[in-house]
Amino acid sequence: MKKYQERIEELQNYFKSHNKFKEYVAHTSKVHSVGWSCDGKRLASGSFDKSVCVYTLDRDRLNKEHTFKGHGGSVDQLCWHQTHPDLLSTASGDKSVRIWDTRIQKSVATINTKGENINITWSPNGQAIAVGNKEDLVTFIDARTHKIEAEEQFHFEVNEISWNNTSDLFFLTNGQGCVHILSYPDLKRQHILKAHPGTCICIEFDPTGKYFATGSADALVSLWDINELACQRVFTRMDWPVRTISFSHDGQLLASASEDLIIDIGFVESGDKIADISVEAATFTVAWHPSLYLLAYACDDKDSYDRKRDAGSLKVWGFQSD
């Protein structure tokens, strides 16, 4: 690991002077999901208050651009098109998926689905959107025609869904600690990885195409070689179930968050700790910027004047300290 030592120290020093966060009140209740557009110019947040907020990044600050309204239930997860910076899709408890266009600031499609949706992913090639509901049904939508192409009912608890970077394999994490890998689009089972002793909660692919990582209820994050399907290392600094993970744009850093009062930032190739971010409440969503070392996140924060009320804020960390 000596070859990485210099880079590890470089990154640790960088974040000593870039450890400032900025907070933005986006919503009237809890923020469930944050994500950056592929060009890094916008940050979106989806909330229990049924709305989606879009901010623009102007050097070292965010400016609120628009609030999308239309969902009749909580917006539980959102994802941007991976090559088209204006298109965003959202999954809601109102049994629908919506696609929004930031250029015209409105919804361009509403796709009605069979149940309360909790997770969503857009294939990297932009052609399909998959959405999972509370009954473990995954619906595949053609992103161009907005028609439902397929529905797949799983007989286990589906926690998170994702395509690989080449859009030909579809991954699901489940309640038995496994990762199911299906070929796409025919959805034939290829592999089942026994990844964790506890529920496997989240999954994320690194931008370089080398690894994917899974976070689990056992408080561990494991890093997998995508070609060998072999576990390379395990990050063990958390004490609580890992709810959300994100790789940095260069694939060198992995952020993990849970009910621990820190967000952990580790060096992918060695597992070394690079930095951590102190938080005051459980964190349910983290997202690295697509070209900068800026991490967006949202916690279960309460209003400082009324502790019973959600703060509805999102934060961005990694700005230069004064």
From TrEMBL:
SMART domains for the chain: WD40
Protein name per its UniProtKB record: THO complex subunit 3
Mapped WD repeat ranges: 24-65, 68-110, 193-234
InterPro entries: Tex1/THOC3, WD40/YVTN_repeat-like_dom_sf, WD40_PAC1, WD40_repeat_CS, WD40_repeat_dom_sf, WD40_rpt
Gene3D superfamilies attached to this UniProt entry: YVTN repeat-like/Quinoprotein amine dehydrogenase (2.130.10.10)
Gene Ontology, cellular component aspect: THO complex part of transcription export complex
Keywords, ordered alphabetically: Repeat, WD repeat
GO-annotated biological processes: mRNA export from nucleus
Organism taxonomic ancestry: Eukaryota, Metazoa, Ecdysozoa, Arthropoda, Hexapoda
Family classification: Belongs to the THOC3 family.
